[in-house]
Design a protein that fits this description.
- It is an enzyme of class 1 (oxidoreductase).
- InterPro entries: Ald_DH/histidinol_DH (IPR016161), Ald_DH_C (IPR016163), Ald_DH_CS_GLU (IPR029510), Ald_DH_N (IPR016162), Aldehyde_DH_dom (IPR015590), ALDH7A1-like (IPR044638).
- This is aldehyde dehydrogenase (NAD(+)).
- Homotetramer.
- The protein has 15 helices and 24 strands.
- With about 500 residues, it is of the alpha/beta class.
- It has two domains: about 270 residues, Aldehyde Dehydrogenase, Chain A, domain 1; about 190 residues, 3-Layer(aba) Sandwich (Aldehyde Dehydrogenase, Chain A, domain 2), CATH 3.40.309.10.
- β4 and β5 form a beta hairpin.
- The longest helix has 21 residues.
- The radius of gyration is 24 Å and the shape is globular.
- The model has no long low-confidence stretch (mean pLDDT about 95).
- The structure holds 2-aminohexanedioic acid (UN1).
């Protein structure tokens, strides 16, 4: 089945991972070998870029920008509309491949492609709504307004956990804004990126889009550094760990470039004594075990009112006992594997630290072995009661480890929720309006996303997506995130017969 999908896109043996669109450049960087965490099978080898190919790609992108920026935005939107149509046609194939290469459940693989389709639709509408403002000038016979122009090359560095959707959030907006893109996908999931390149290229060829608007640059850390340091790339959008984001942010900042950072989360749900506990349970369990705890929005902490702590944790334990772990392409399973064995090691180290720092396990973790688990990447989702200040709890571990913490007052719960370095997503489960509004108020959650009666993960594309503190401060996807991809220009036009100076300054000759 996966073989058929690869064949459909001409992917076999060692495939170039460097492309400016129709052209695939022979890469001179290391070969990235992609194998599936589902069954350990090798998928394909991808030849990554050397420095010379990076320069060639950046030059092609720069050239393409000169033309693309002059296409009317609605025409660029029409091309993106067709990408959305192509993604609809390829949803099953791409969704399966995402599930197989990354390890998320098939439902989530399809969901990821749906998220791509949704952002295409959003971007199409946006292509007619890149609105500026008009202002009233203080001078007679003058008009003032601001307009938004394309910015240039957008560098996109994406992570393995959403191997294709996060690229599309950036690329679709960047394209309608008139930018061109260079995408460095995660070295752990290069094959899904090849497929995206093929899908886009078919649409671009049919529309005579210039070569260089959609560039792929497979590579590791070095390729990310080239992008971050290059003054030809005015905007770098990076998704990944806070450690990576700090390195990218400082390299881009050192050259006064613009960066859009979407980094780690340490997301909590407050379970109030006034919550609908049965309803809350679904949000908590999906948030904690969905994508095997490898979303930046995964629920890592539950802050539970003391008087419902026993009742709610009992429900959680029962739910965890029913979880089916196994091949994510089998739709009966809830939880698939972690991305690779390194991730399994990090999960195991985290479990040791939880114990060493005083945590008490309500559901024990562990690595699964035997038939069906040959890849060595399947782990048990687990739950531990901890204190919020433990060092391990303050860190984001990309694995299905859920921490439970007790609270007495809402004030204390909000303080615990905020008391971590990260600030991406948060939620409260309560039927009490006062509690909900306090959580959403200026003195409430300090995160970029704050929800009531839904979980922390699974945000819709229509809202701005991102968070504060160590999450990096960037906002991608919906709302006015498009402004990141454009440069703003203020224009003042004098249509009078004199040239009065602002602030009433007299300057006679
Ligand atoms: C990510 O994990 O980097 O809100 C993105 C969500 C998804 C996107 C997650 N829509 O969980």
């Amino acid at each position: 089945m996966i073989k058929d999908i690869l064949q459909q896109f001409n992917i076999s043996g060692t495939h170039s991972g460097v492309s400016t669109g129709a052209h695939w450049l022979p890469g001179t960087g290391p070969v990235l070998s992609s194998s599936s965490p589902v069954d350990g099978q090798h998928i394909a080898d991808v030849q990554s870029a050397g420095r010379a190919e990076f320069d060639a790609v950046a030059a092609a992108a720069g050239q393409a920008f000169k033309e693309w920026r002059q296409w009317p935005a609605p025409k660029r939107g029409e091309v993106v509309r067709q990408i959305g149509e192509a993604l609809r046609r390829h949803k099953t194939a791409l969704g399966k491949l995402v599930s197989y290469e990354m390890g998320k459940s098939l439902q989530e693989g399809y969901g990821e492609v749906q998220e791509m389709i949704d952002i295409c639709d959003f971007a199409v509408g946006l292509s007619r709504q890149l609105y500026g403002l008009t202002m009233h000038s203080e001078r007679p016979g003058h008009r003032m307004y601001e307009q938004w122009h394309p910015l240039g090359i957008t560098g996109i560095i994406s992570a393995f956990n959403f191997p294709v959707a996060v690229w599309s959030w950036n690329a679709m907006l960047a394209w309608v804004c008139g930018d061109v893109c260079i995408w460095k996908p995660s070295e752990k999931t290069p094959v899904t990126a090849l497929v995206c390149q093929y899908i886009v290229q078919q649409v671009f060829a049919a529309n005579h889009v210039p070569e260089g608007v959609c560039c792929l640059l497979a590579g590791g850390r070095e390729a990310g550094e080239w992008i971050a340091q290059d003054t030809r790339i005015p905007l770098v959008s990076a998704t990944g760990s806070s450690r990576m984001g700090k390195a990218v942010g400082s390299a881009v900042g050192a050259r006064l470039g613009r960066s859009l950072l979407e980094l780690g989360g340490n997301n909590a749900i407050i379970i109030s004594a006034e919550a609908d506990l049965d309803m809350a349970l679904i949000g908590c369990v999906f948030g904690a075990v969905g994508t095997a705890g490898q979303r930046c929005t995964s629920t890592r902490r539950l802050i539970i009112a003391e008087n419902v702590f026993e009742a709610f944790t009992q429900k959680l334990v029962n739910a965890y006992q029913q979880l089916r772990i196994g091949n994510p392409l089998d739709e009966r399973n809830h939880v698939g594997p972690l991305i690779d064995k390194d991730a399994v090691q990090m999960y195991l180290q985290a479990l040791d630290q939880v114990k060493a720092q005083g945590g008490r396990f309500l559901v024990e973790g562990g690595v699964l072995d035997g038939p069906g688990f040959e890849s060595g990447c399947y782990v048990r989702p687990c739950i531990a009661e901890v204190q919020n200040h433990y060092d391990i709890v303050q860190h984001e571990t990309f694995a299905p480890i859920l921490y439970v913490i007790r609270y007495k007052t809402l004030e204390e719960a909000i303080a615990l929720q905020n008391d971590v370095p990260q600030g991406l997503s948060s939620a409260i489960m309560t039927l009490n309006l006062r509690e909900a509004e306090a959580f959403l108020s200026a003195a409430g959650s300090d995160c970029g996303i704050a929800n009531v009666n839904i979980g922390t993960s699974g945000a819709e594309i229509g809202g701005a997506f991102g968070g504060e503190k160590d999450t990096g401060g960037g906002r991608e996807s919906g709302s006015d995130a498009w402004k990141n991809y454009m440069r703003r220009q203020t224009n003042t036009i004098n249509y009078s017969t004199s040239l009065p100076l602002a602030q009433g300054i007299e300057f006679g000759l």
